[in-house]
Amino acid sequence: MQKKMLSLALFLFPGQHLGAWRLPDAIPEMDVGIEHYVRAAQLAEEAKLDAIFFEDQAALPRANDIAEGDTYGAAHPRSIHFDPMMVLPALAMHTKHLGLAATSTASFNEPYNLARRFASIDFISNGRAGWNLVTSFNENEAQNFGLDAHLEHGARYERASEFIDVVTGLWDSWEEDAVTRDKETGVYFDVEKMHFLRHEGKFFKVRGPLTMGRSPQGRPVIFQAGSSEPGRELAARTADVVFTLQTDIAESRAFRDDIRARAVRFGRDPDKIKILVGATPIVGTTDEEAQELRIRMRELIPEELAISHLMPHSGGVDFRTYDLNGPMPDLPETNAGKSHRSAIVALARSENLSILQTARRFAEGSYLKLVGAPATVADRMQAWREADACDGFLVVPTHYPTGVEDFTRRVVPELQRRGFFRTEYTGKHLRDHLGVTSYS
Amino acid sequence: MQKKMLSLALFLFPGQHLGAWRLPDAIPEMDVGIEHYVRAAQLAEEAKLDAIFFEDQAALPRANDIAEGDTYGAAHPRSIHFDPMMVLPALAMHTKHLGLAATSTASFNEPYNLARRFASIDFISNGRAGWNLVTSFNENEAQNFGLDAHLEHGARYERASEFIDVVTGLWDSWEEDAVTRDKETGVYFDVEKMHFLRHEGKFFKVRGPLTMGRSPQGRPVIFQAGSSEPGRELAARTADVVFTLQTDIAESRAFRDDIRARAVRFGRDPDKIKILVGATPIVGTTDEEAQELRIRMRELIPEELAISHLMPHSGGVDFRTYDLNGPMPDLPETNAGKSHRSAIVALARSENLSILQTARRFAEGSYLKLVGAPATVADRMQAWREADACDGFLVVPTHYPTGVEDFTRRVVPELQRRGFFRTEYTGKHLRDHLGVTSYS
């Protein structure tokens, strides 16, 4: 039987773990240090990963709180980061094979600009560009773009759906051999092979075409992370890669089955849509050492930041008036966030955790934790893949550089030895690495 | 007496000359070939130029005509080009000193996004970013952004003026030492040194701050090219570099005097605003050889493209019904474009030019032509600078690579020998090269 190979991308997300940046061997200055981004991309390419991937938010994650006078937001390491799209062309100069993917919101960009930028990156990287389509959902961002609040959820997805059709339509606006640059005749391009889009929809009116011929991949790879009903529909119709947050193998398999079934209903080959689970490896020489590292990093999460994460699920209890090292109080019933609240109380009771311990556990990040020696981490990845719970992982290390190296230099070789991951690049483009070469 | 040094930037504008791309030694494939952009930037840095500079239009220059069925637009070499902002991070990886400046329109971008992108480039290049603010004026672009026509001129400038205040305000939103990343205390930044912008104006409402601390230059260098009354006012108030199209030394001096006087009225030091004239060098071993090259390139401009340039100034005469090798007919009086029309007829009569010859002359580009042996080109640059007609030049070669090499390897050494241009970089940032270090 053929082995089920893994897709693996490095999700470089400095500040994702709210405490790990305080480890002695972490370099938080990477947040605006391009040489560190380059180094991380090179580590990813040495390990033959499919891609490096960046999320984005166009605001401080705690801007609203700070604006209202709460200063704990100043402990949030994700406050400082680039527009990741500007990082991709730089990384293209220092890598040859690695896919280069960044998030850019459909909510605050024009589709013509966005299509043109990713087509530019696709040329600059010679066919390695990926775009993660998101719709923006938080007020921190909205307030940097003239809005007090936001489009409601349904309208956001309706707009995103039209947005993506404009973008892919623009990417398709030139046939492959349209740009001839014929010195003899003086004709620069074949006007018969250039097509106006002439899109006129509810949200956008765009004539096209782009200012460049068809890019090496034709269409850069499209990532999405929708989990709601309209999010799943949009992903099944238009995404090449679906990034998902899962911690239970059976639930993840159900999610993957659902996306694949929807893709079939849209007339797509379900094998051309890859489901990648967000996973945070925490690696040690032994499983025990890895567990210790996890606890050490957890305790580095600043107290106020951890408590602020818990507060929206407290049912109105202000933890700051309690002894944070004392036991978790009962949380009153309210209509909102009941499931989170029950889980929090159950966690605190079952392990006899203090308020602060509970808060830090809750603030540790929600990606699947793969904690252990390299073989243990590889075991779990293999198990998820073999159970068809995913096609692979977006790997989110806790910190740079050691967290990145632990995965690329210790876990990946173990996966390669077992035959679940490539040892050499065979294709040329990001679509080849992911096995999503046919997009239509 | 101290010599008046020149500021020099390479304005890499493939397709600017509508015929030169057809020369045997031109490489039109540079339009989407990043390795050629890198090579051009390296040539500029070898010559110790201040910067490399890119213009932009988010549309095919002849999109409207093509949409209406005229296919001559397919001869326009400027149809194919990147979003130049995506090129800058790539060039930052292959250069150390050269300034990196690109055009990005205020008309179809959000100021928060634009400020963040250029701040990112400023970090990535370690203090070498420049932004050329333009307002978009043509329908080809408007139709890619949901509009049929455009904001009228006054409103465009009113909006641009507010736009630039938002951008610079965002660049100023963090004090220099605000981001501390203090592992000991867990505080990532000093909230007292981070400032919300809280801008609420006629066109924009933006809270800020950016998602990164103060960039190496604080504010990336601002280029503008306004020549109208509101354009001059905006430039005098906010620009570090004014790019201008001038062909007469006395008129150029008057323009420079005017901008400087306006700057003083805004309380600025006039020496901190640099006037760069767009200049196209056409270089030969002898002056005669250069003249021959000019004529050769002119004759490579495709006939239909040349005629289409002339038509808006024909007073309604359809040249396409005439013998193009015959003499220029009289052009009827109309209200529009009278000065151009008189100039065209005068040119044709004085040199006994055919319609096509006149059209090609007119379509050759409007930058100051510096035609001759390297010493001749250097003489003219020196003369303009010594007459205070400019502070330097944005140098627009006709083609790549030889047109670029002719300037950087033949003309610049001549200027260096004469002591009018640096032989080594002395400063670190683009602001240092230009001598515009103090922006407030």
Automatic annotation (TrEMBL), chains A, B:
User: Entry's Pfam families?
Assistant: Bac_luciferase
Q: Which Gene3D superfamilies match?
A: Luciferase-like domain
> Could you tell me which species this protein originates from?
Ancylobacter crimeensis
Listed name of the protein: LLM class flavin-dependent oxidoreductase
Instruction: State the family named in the UniProt similarity comment for this chain.
Output: Belongs to the NtaA/SnaA/DszA monooxygenase family.
The superkingdom listed in its UniProt entry is Bacteria
Where would I find the Luciferase-like domain in this sequence? 33-387
Q: Kindly give the InterPro entries that the UniProt entry links to this protein.
A: Diverse_substr_monoxygenases, Luciferase-like_dom, Luciferase-like_sf, NTA_MOA
Q: What is the lineage of its organism?
A: Bacteria, Pseudomonadati, Pseudomonadota, Alphaproteobacteria, Hyphomicrobiales
* Entry keywords, A to Z: Flavoprotein, FMN, Monooxygenase, Oxidoreductase
The coiled-coil segments of this chain are none
